[in-house]
Amino acid sequence: MLIIPAIELREGISTRALAEWDDDEPVFPLDPQSVAQTWYNMGARYIHVGDLDGAFSGHCDNLDAIKRILEVDGIEIQVGGGIRTMETIDTLLGLGVKRVVLGTVAITNHQLVADACKQYGDRIVISIDSRDGMVLMEGWKAGVPTTVLEMVKVMEQLGVTHIVYHDSNRAGKLKGPDFSHILPVLEATNMKVIVSGGISSLADIQSIKALPQDNLVGAILGKALYTKDINLQVAISEAAK
Questions:
Q1: Which domain holds residue 197?
Q2: What's the CATH number where 94 sits?
Q3: Measured between alpha carbons, how far is 169 from 117 in angstroms, rounded to an integer?
């Protein structure tokens, strides 16, 4: 299982709030390139980069910061947030981004998803952002009348090979993942699944790794790395056992 540290971008800096989009809580303002270098030095070779501004605006708003992260030798990244057109997909992959993560557009434009998968194959990842088993969009603020399992089935039919299952109820709260929602997603698809949201301890990583489905390929770690609740080197070592 791959351990994937996250860098969330707001106005060109790396930042993690206590809970997603809660501006009343403290953040961790850091230089994104320095964070990427730190994660690389601790053993990470693949990073999730989230453009939080773009998730709301519908545009890739932190392109300069993404370019600087790509300057870190040996790092591969996947980028999500505000990617709503084929032109943006082309631009990011052309810069050297390994994979792009589509969220809102995967709900609103199935044809774009199908076209992108046909052109780029497994370099297209779909983020299924959820709350209580229902799908969210537009920066995890807007709900849609679609269940997570319904969206899983549609994405697989469109040719998607990789998804991120993101639990917005748990993200940034250091309360551990909700396995009652993770397991049905894994059982419902043959797509490769990366889980995200609430992972806050080495025990959480061990529990995720122990899930029986072999299509679980990765876990995204966010706030727990910044608060030092999880040591990245130890997490990578544990996941590799």
A1: 2-240
A2: 3.20.20.70
A3: 29
Q: Which residues pair with 8 in a beta bridge?
A: 50
> What own/partner pairs with CB < 8 Å and gap ≥ 24 does 173-182 have?
173/18, 173/19, 173/198, 174/198, 174/200, 174/223, 174/224, 174/227, 174/229, 175/200, 176/200, 176/201, 176/204, 177/204, 177/207, 177/208, 179/207, 179/211, 181/130, 181/133, 181/148, 182/208, 182/211
Q: Are 207 and 178 in contact (CB under 8 A)?
A: no
Instruction: Enter the pTM of the model.
Output: 0.92
As a whole number of angstroms, the distance between CA 44 and CA 236 comes to 8
What is the domain count for the chain? 1
Residue closest to 8 by CA, chosen among 45, 53, 59, 56 = 53
Per-residue pLDDT of the chain (241 residues), as tens digits, is 999 999 999 878 877 643 444 554 446 678 999 999 999 999 999 999 999 888 778 888 899 999 999 999 999 999 999 999 999 999 999 999 999 999 999 999 999 999 999 999 999 999 999 988 899 876 666 668 899 999 999 999 999 999 999 998 777 777 789 999 999 999 999 999 999 999 999 999 999 999 989 999 999 999 899 989 999 999 999 999 8
C-alpha span between 16 and 68 (Å, rounded): 19
Phi, psi of 220 (to 5 degrees): -90, 130
Nearest to 178 by CA among 154, 153, 207, 206: 207
